[in-house]
Design goal:
Family: Belongs to the glycosyl hydrolase 3 family.
Largest sheet: 8 strands, antiparallel
Structural class: alpha+beta
CATH topology of the largest domain: TIM Barrel
GO molecular function, one term: hydrolase activity
InterPro entries: BXL, Fn3-like, GH, Glyco_hydro_3_C, Glyco_hydro_3_C_sf, Glyco_hydro_3_N, Glyco_hydro_3_N_sf, Ig-like_fold
CATH architecture of the largest domain: Alpha-Beta Barrel
Number of helices: 22
Number of domains: 5
CATH class of the largest domain: Alpha Beta
Shape: globular
Pfam families: Fn3-like (PF14310), Glyco_hydro_3 (PF00933), Glyco_hydro_3_C (PF01915), PA14 (PF07691)
Strand content: 15-25%
Protein name: Glycoside hydrolase family 3 C-terminal domain-containing protein
Radius of gyration: 29 Å
Length: about 900
């Protein structure tokens, strides 16, 4: 519209000027108008035309600068700085205060796509509101943009993989179902239908065949993958997000696939993603993945950055998280890539920015009018509570010990996770306004009617308990520590300031900065606080450090250390007096590798089981909150503990110190309710034998304590079901680095696990009737209608998760069964509900070995419907496809 107006205005002035004889003024005005208004600035044109026009005006240097995650501005054309890297795994992450929902592995236990959509609609509301605030301030830094690098939809094929906590479990169908819901919630599908702009952009990661190990991911080669496993297990969720979710970004993985790095893998990126599935969006590299192409310690498949960058772009990787793409100019000079090949990627990047409205005035984009009051709001806290409640899985309830009574009961709350708020946040998280720990949730629930005893009893993996006293640290009148950062190692020049008000864990692994505005390398920091303890004794400062550190107390250096190979543990103890103030200062500087600084202050006490037993001796019941923590399992960590390696696990057993305490508690004869917090399966065989009830609480987010208490006392009837298999022990697991699916997950495990995929108890009890089908024979391409009557035969209203599985009878080497549909249904006490399913042609596909692809095959099939994948509990029906 504007460029049409400028053209009309130009011609009008030309007519007038010819009459008046002032041609020179006409030329000046015409040039001025056209220098200000180009087609790409006209938001009435299609995004495609605008991107084409803008691309044509860029120099090759400008194009390359736009192909890195920290894209520099092109001021002459009005292109702002933009940082593509933002995170929203289960809430807006690393950008200050935000609602923290349960970790995705927990949310997957809901089996509830409507809930996942609601959660991520709330997340994208907060993301948009935050971006609007940052934009008004003229700030376009990391974790402030509109491109959210989530969800993680890799298959959780092995419980030892530390990063499995970010996924939606082990099943391709469930991962697809919930992953698509997350993408739609983020991108605003169905919201503000009149808007031509996307709300935010989601990113399906990590493509593909990427499920651990973490410790060697930069050099690991996933090879000899069976084509069936590739198409039935590792690729379906990515295909669903592309075709059904219209996801706008895909992130390629660190590892190699069949010898080629995933971010330069023609088979994955070009033949499958682009050509077979028709993906038109952006492929972004995982952070530093292109550098892995040429590092000797990594893949070392290319000679230098230029060769690696050219190969990545030609294979379809448009955007690099890193800095190797700076060498694309050299690659052009060397003849390894052409400008026209670069143009393909740059156009995709420009198109995405136009779709988000990032190139237009904020007032033109409806999403910018989202009220910033939604950030960490009570409304979103309520959704976080609902998600936590629905995620919790009741694994065992012997003699119906649960729910507990609130009145007149003495409860001993024990275990290393009972009062740990940070554990509940998981990883890739924001900072909530408030977190309700499990201990606090129990106290809040019973009020003054019952007596609660708290005794931690043991640590997660070590034979001591640590009582944090960080709450007694203040700096400049505020709780916590003040932090100053310099983007050099000598603390010169301007600083970046931040207030840390929780025990903190900072690490640059995965290219994560310590704070906004701080660079990844060659930086320094200074942390200050005054510690005023509430008790006298020997205080302990606990740190994990990778870098150079001077720890000062009242101005005196008490610890000075510099790491060599990986991080080291620092534990400094000193005597303190109640009420006296102690100045704590930490001077930190980056040294080598991944910078890391974890800090807490408190009182360390060696575990004394007998003392703990005495303290809880008159309790009526013991609620033990154990498991592990995101400080132990997660993405490529720098610290190892017994049973853990770089964030992965070397076995799936509960740490021995917890087992020892539980064994001592069992001998007291008291009823034990064991609550497990983890992002992966724990071998709970021993625990299940000694415990009256077992609950899987995951990492339940900011409202997790309230949700757990609601389950314990019957204020919420549990409805969560396991999205992963809980194995009996580590001996049931194949080799971690073997990517064959045989022997893994409920689909290919040929022995009995402890708790099956889909298992979850309720305070209600449900009975399934016979499956009814509209026909028992169908033709290829036809759909099948089914129904089953489910009765709640208890006196308690409840929600059942009705699961439908499919098995081809003569497929002897195939899966035991595969989830094909799921329905959440609320059933009142004593009532029955008919549950309907429609299996479409796409739901009936299975592996065709002759065609070497997924296909609808003739033959006999078994349909199974029930409340879990356990064969004995499923109703079955045969039908045939001809």
């Amino acid at each position: 519209m504007l460029h049409q107006y400028s053209s009309w205005l130009k011609h009008s002035f030309e007519f007038l000027n010819l009459k008046k004889g002032i041609l020179s003024f006409t030329v000046f005005l015409s040039v001025t108008l056209h220098s200000q208004i180009y087609p790409y600035q006209d938001n009435n044109l299609s995004f495609e035309k605008r991107a084409d026009d803008l691309l044509s005006r860029l120099t090759i240097e400008e194009k390359i600068s736009l192909m890195m995650d920290s894209s520099q501005p092109v001021k002459r054309l009005g292109i702002k700085k933009y940082n593509w890297w933002n995170e929203a795994l289960h809430g807006v992450a690393r950008a200050g205060q935000a609602t923290v929902f349960p970790q995705p592995i927990g949310m997957s236990a809901t089996f509830d796509k409507e809930l996942i959509y609601k959660v991520f609609s709330a997340v994208s509301d907060e993301a948009r509101a935050k971006h609007t605030i940052f934009s008004r301030q003229g700030s376009y830094e990391r974790y402030q943009g509109l491109t959210m690098w989530t969800p993680t939809i890799n298959i959780f094929r092995d419980p030892r993989w530390g990063r499995g906590i970010e996924t939606y479990g082990e099943d391709p169908f469930l991962t697809s179902l919930l992953g698509v819901a997350a993408v739609r919630g983020l991108q605003g599908s169905g919201d503000l239908k009149k808007s031509k702009y996307d709300k935010v952009h989601a990113c399906a990661k990590h493509f593909a065949v990427h499920s651990g190990p973490e410790w060697n991911r930069h050099s690991f080669n996933a090879k000899n993958i069976k084509t069936r496993d590739l198409y039935e297990t590792y690729l379906p969720a990515f295909e669903a997000l592309v075709k059904e979710g219209n996801v706008q970004e895909v992130m390629c993985a660190y590892n190699r696939f069949e010898g080629e790095p995933c971010c330069g893998n023609d088979q994955l990126l070009m033949q499958i993603l682009r050509k077979k599935w028709g993906f038109q969006g952006i492929v972004v590299s995982d952070c530093g993945a292109i550098a892995d192409f040429y590092k000797e310690s990594a893949h070392n498949t290319h000679t230098d950055a230029a060769k690696a960058s050219a190969a990545a772009v030609l294979s379809g990787t448009d955007l690099e998280c890193g800095s190797s793409y700076k060498s694309l100019m050299k690659a052009m000079k060397d003849g390894d890539i052409s400008e026209s090949a670069i143009d393909i990627s740059v156009k995709r990047l420009l198109l995405a920015r136009f779709k988000l409205g990032e190139m237009d005035r904020a007032s033109d984009v409806e999403w910018t009018r989202i009220n910033p009051d939604v950030i960490a709001s009570q409304k979103h806290a309520a959704i976080a509570l609902e998600a936590a409640q629905k995620s919790i899985v009741l694994l065992q309830n012997r003699n119906n010990i649960l729910p507990l009574k609130k009145d007149g009961i003495k409860i001993a709350v024990m275990g290393p996770n009972a009062n740990d708020s940070i554990m509940q946040w998981g990883n890739y998280n924001g900072t909530p306004k408030n977190t309700v720990t499990i201990l606090q949730g129990i106290k809040n629930s019973v009020g003054k009617n019952s007596n609660i005893i708290y005794e931690q009893g043991c640590g997660l993996v070590e034979d001591y308990v640590f009582d944090s006293a960080f709450a007694y640290c203040k700096s400049e009148g505020k709780k916590g520590m003040s932090a100053k950062y310099w983007n050099n190692i000598s603390k010169n020049g301007d600083t970046v300031l931040q207030q840390l008000d929780h025990p903190f864990s900072l690490c640059t692994s995965g290219d994560t900065v310590f704070a906004q505005g701080v660079q990844l390398k060659d930086f320094s920091a200074e942390y200050n606080t005054f510690f005023e303890p509430a008790e006298s004794g020997e205080a302990s400062i606990q740190m994990y450090v990778n870098g150079k550190v001077d720890l000062k107390i009242d101005g005196k250096i008490v610890v000075s250390t510099k790491t060599g190979h990986g991080p080291k543990k620092v534990n400094y103890q000193f005597l303190v007096e109640k009420g006296k103030k102690y100045q704590i200062e930490i001077d930190f500087a980056y040294h080598s590798g991944d910078a890391q600084l974890n800090f807490d202050i408190g009182f360390q006490r060696k575990s004394d089981f007998q003392k703990s037993l005495q303290k809880v001796s008159d309790a009526d019941v013991i609620v033990f909150v154990g498991g592990i923590s995101p400080s132990l399992e997660g993405e490529e960590m720098g610290v190892d503990f017994p049973g853990f390696k770089r964030g992965d696990r070397t076995d799936i057993e509960l740490p021995q110190t917890q087992k020892s305490l539980l064994n001592a508690l069992e001998k007291t004869g008291k009823q034990i309710i064991y609550i497990n917090c983890s992002g992966s399966a724990i071998a709970l065989d021993y625990i299940a034998n000694m415990s009256a009830a077992v609950i899987q609480a995951w990492y339940p987010g900011q409202e997790g304590g309230t949700a757990v208490a609601d389950i314990l006392f019957g204020d919420y009837n549990p409805s969560g079901h396991l999205p992963i298999t809980f194995y009996k022990n580590s001996s049931q697991l194949p080799d971690f680095e073997n990517y064959d699916m045989e022997g893994r997950t409920y689909r290919y495990l040929r022995t009995d696990p402890l708790f099956v995929f889909g298992h979850g108890l309720s305070y209600s009890s449900f009975k399934y009737g016979k499956i009814k089908a509209d026909k028992n024979r169908i033709k290829r391409g036809q759909s099948l209608q089914l129904s089953v009557l489910v009765k709640n035969k208890s006196k308690v209203d409840g929600t059942e998760t009705v699961q439908l599985y499919l098995k081809k009878k003569d497929d002897h080497n195939g899966p035991n069964r595969e989830l094909r549909a799921v329905k959440k249904i609320f059933i009142s006490a004593g009532k029955s509900e008919k549950v309907d399913f429609l299996l479409e042609a796409k739901d009936l596909k299975s592996w065709n070995a002759e065609l070497n692809e997924m296909d609808i095959q003739v033959g006999i099939y078994t349909l199974e419907i029930g409340g879990s994948s356990k064969a004995e509990s499923l109703k079955s029906l045969e039908f045939s496809i001809r």
